[in-house]
Amino acid sequence: MDLFLSDTTMNTxxxxxxxxxxxxxVLTWRKRSPERVPPGSLGLPLIGQSLGLLRAMxxxxxxxxxxxxxxxxxxxxxxxxxxxxxxxxxGQAANKFVFATDSSSIVNQQVKSIxxxxxxxxxxxxxxxxxxxxxxxxxxxxxxxxxxxxxxxxDEEVRNHLEMHWHGKEQVTVCxxxxxxxxxxxxxxxxxxxxxxxxxxxxxxxxxxxxxFRYMIEGMWSIPVNLPFTRYNRSLRSxxxxxxxxxxxxxxxRVDLENGASSRQDLITCLxxxxxxxxxxxISERExxxxxxxxxxxxxxxxxxxxxxxxxxFANNPAIYAAVLQEQEEIAKNxxxxxxxxxxxxxxxxxxxxxxxxxxxxxxxxxxGFRKAVKDIEYGGYxxxxxxLIFWVTGMTQMDDTIFPEPxxxxxxxxxxxxxxxxxxxxxxxxxxxxxxxxEFARIETLVSIHxxxxxxxxxxxxxxxxxxxxxxxxxxxxxxxxxxxxxLL
Length: 490
Fold this sequence. Notes:
Elements: H1 2-31, H2 50-58, H3 62-73, E1 77-81, E2 84-89, H4 92-100, E3 106-108, H5 112-118, H6 128-142, H7 144-147, H8 151-165, E4 171-173, H9 185-198, H10 204-218, H11 231-258, H12 267-273, H13 285-316, H14 318-332, H15 343-347, H16 350-362, E5 368-373, E6 377-379, E7 382-384, E8 389-393, H17 395-398, H18 439-456, E9 457-461, E10 468-470, E11 474-476, E12 481-486
Parallel strand pairs: 2-8
Antiparallel strand pairs: 1-2, 3-5, 4-12, 5-8, 6-7, 9-12, 10-11
């Protein structure tokens, strides 16, 4: 009987503790919020509003989800995302604050899931002189003057992809939500990145890297709970395999350099060859690996999403399609059969790029991002405490009718004079000193791909559903299946 009472008492105590511990955690979590912080709720520890935001992104209602917060708390509010307290901001002033404020106040800081997957030495994480050193090294390869010589190689990759996966087909799915190699535009962009930036040619190694890469992306925005069978855990394991493969690749490139290979044959070789006045390698091996992973994600995101939504646009908007086709056919008819596109050809694709820019305005590949306050700072009349995240979004500014009249209307003429668009209002590639170093690479990749898609094929949609979800990048319903037919070459 005494033993029974003892067990009952112990069970009661355990039950009370199980009830009190979460209450204590919630109370202490809320006490961390000092006075004068923006209104809002941090929610439960670790989880916060993460699940709500991810659910809204996957149903393409994230803007509405944020608008509901704005109606309740105002344009600035506190929340908790992926295990960290954060302040949500948006608008032109917010974009300028994020992209133009120096590192004495805010610094790059991704959520734990992103930094753990991509690595802590990529430029998304670096600050001050380290950020400048690595960014300058990347720009030395990705600037227009350097990329001019690679247009032909990019042209070749696009044509090879279409020859292997489009010619002879009656139907393709443009963008898979599942992890599948094949005919997709995202596979095309991945091939270009592998070949041009990393010197990884077609074969088993590229296929393995592609598999790991796709699993990495799945967990980029996820709750950082490293348990088996979670997206986060699978992404971490994929990242580890990809980093190991890249390390082997760097070893090979280092040997190639020692044997007299050109330092400009690809991005990795370029980074390995950069030396200081003491002949010491400027960029560490770890920094090369982490920034290669970043560029894989960044280059893939923008270009594959943009190409997918451009194909959907052309199928739904005959007038835009006809105007782009006319511009591209003018270029094609002046090219001898089999000759690659040149930099001068890309310069002529002015209307095509305006269409691409307007597509990016309506369907930004990156929903938003994060910074971190390195000290208590004032913004909009509120205090952002030291070490809190700053969560900003792009699409809400690009759909602001005070900046872009009739924002839901597709109108490429908005970009006739880019200088007429107020600074920090159109930010698919960032802005100011934080503008994406791969901007020019994405432009070339997009224009070359569109040239061959539109001059060599026609297509019609096989799915009338125009909705899309974010996971975390936008993907059209059912992956945008299309019926294709070859066009007669001029």
